[in-house]
Amino acid sequence: MKNPNKHHMLFNEDELFHIFTSLFDIVYLMKFLPPKDFQYIRVSENAKKLASLKDNDIGKTISQIYHSHIAGHLNEHYYEAVEKNGPITFRDRLNMDNEEKYGESVLIPFQYNEETYVVGLTRDITHVVNLEKKQAYDPITGLPFSDNFISALNSTLKLKKYEGSMWNLYYISINQLSFIQYTNRNVETELLKQIANRLKRFLKSEDLLSRVSSNEFVIGVQIHYPEEGKDIAHQIYEAINHPFQTEEFETIVTPSIGVATINPATLDIPSSMAEAFQAMLRAKSKVDTQIVLPNDTDWSDNSRKNTLERDLSYALQKGQFLLYYQPKLDIRENNLNVEALLRWNHQNFGLVPPNEFIPLAEQNQLIKIIGKWVIQQVCKDMKAFKKLNPNIKVAINISPVQLNDANFVEDIKKIIAKEKVDPGKIELEITESDLLHIPSAQKQFELLSNVGFRLVLDDFGTSYSSLNYLKELSVQKIKIDKSFIMNMDYHQKDQQIVQMIIKLAKNLDLEVTAEGVEKWKHIELLTKMDCNEIQGYYLSKPLPVLEIMKKLEENKISLTEYEKRMS
């Protein structure tokens, strides 16, 4: 970029750097590389720490070191100084991993040997920002208001350790709070504090919570895959829906929750908040659980669905399907088993949730081909798993379309024969509600059982025909639906239902898996009830194959570990 009016500097790089570091702790000397990138030439030691730079990063460009959205953010500031041909000043969060620190920077462009450079000088203004923040918090709950929340979340997302991470916004409206405000202010104040405390339980150290209006809250949560975001929404719903006890009386409120995913390319938080707000408004019109998730099939337009239907045909060929594995713990044997879970990494939409693409695959019968690939891949992975844990069992979800296929049993027999896998180490899970559409289920179950596969009734207890299936079908295990497990520590009826199902299973010589284990209290109750196996986020989220192998190798998941955690 040539400009005859540019200021020229009479010092060389070393002299210039020495002058500035004698006056400022945080100094960057950058070289402009057209069209819009900057190279680190010299950096003070404090600046290295704040920007998480290593010695071998010096000489690299901003775009080579940082993720695209952070690089774009930094380059914009430096380019503004070059384009303006004069100093610019801006505030930003300093790139600290564990501590919030803020800086005010001055960028000064100059020319040396017909090359364009920029000197960046930064001073620590954390104390000033902290004073400003004190004026931006709700006096009742102590939570930040909307503007402060957006600013803090924006700074967090630009930290180097969160590059490319996935974040959801949960916009929560408390529906009965407006009435309480007009009838009893003391109850309203106490209730707001209790609601804020319950919401804080869902926060990890990096997550943020805001009270954005009289009866509305927003949570910014880092997630690792779409299903985790869905589970968090339902956990928030259940937590708020549970009765609150004030000094005067017990009260129940219900939330409406809208969820939006922040675009990692743009990090446009206000737009995502607007999406979450609109989703919350749509949630209010729902009769049942008032939650609207990103790309909820009830609300999204047809263009996404049409795109997914079109691309699904090529997903397997393009290698876009992935298998994740969620650990399950055999309580009595203290042995680790896993469940295989399918993921689709779409080229435009990223990870598409299974509840969105599996129904499409079932409608166009592609699930037969995809399901066969899943079984083949599981068998391959099992060989590696067995080297680390010879007793491991792997569960595979089977679609009713697969079970209805006359060739299904023969196909799966060929796969295990080719891969030399013991069918007794494979559990085939079928959701009991799907059995209504499988006239030949009894015959298929018998054939699979004769081969040696272990058959599991998934989501047990959600159908009126549950007991009839136990009588008619050759199953070895039932999996209690997580809706009974998640609330049984404070819903006596759920606890009684779980106890009854486990006793029934024992009398019929069936094993029992409890899914939806989210708390240590769940484990304590299920152990006393003599449940065989537990599964849920308290143990572990679903993991890619390399991570699950690492856990198997280190034998990290065991009851002993959690007993130590709680003691």
How would you characterize this protein structure?
This protein is α/β, with parallel strands linked by helices and 567 residues long. It has three domains: 13-125, PAS domain (Beta-Lactamase), CATH 3.30.450; 137-292, Reverse transcriptase/Diguanylate cyclase domain (Alpha-Beta Plaits, 2-Layer Sandwich); 302-566, TIM Barrel (Alpha-Beta Barrel), CATH 3.20.20.450. The chain has 22 helices and 22 strands. The strands form four sheets. The protein has an eight-stranded mixed beta barrel, surrounded by five helices. It has a five-stranded antiparallel beta sheet with strand order 2-1-5-4-3, sandwiched between helices. The protein has a five-stranded mixed beta sheet with strand order 7-8-6-11-12, sandwiched between helices. The longest helix is centred in the middle third of the chain and has 22 residues, at 367-388. The termini are far apart. Residues 165-296 form the GGDEF domain. This is Diguanylate cyclase (GGDEF)-like protein. It comes from Salirhabdus euzebyi. InterPro entries: Cyclic-di-GMP_PDE-like (IPR050706), EAL_dom (IPR001633), EAL_sf (IPR035919), GGDEF_dom (IPR000160), Nucleotide_cyclase (IPR029787), PAS-like_dom_sf (IPR035965), Rev_trsase/Diguanyl_cyclase (IPR043128). Residues 305-556 form the EAL domain.
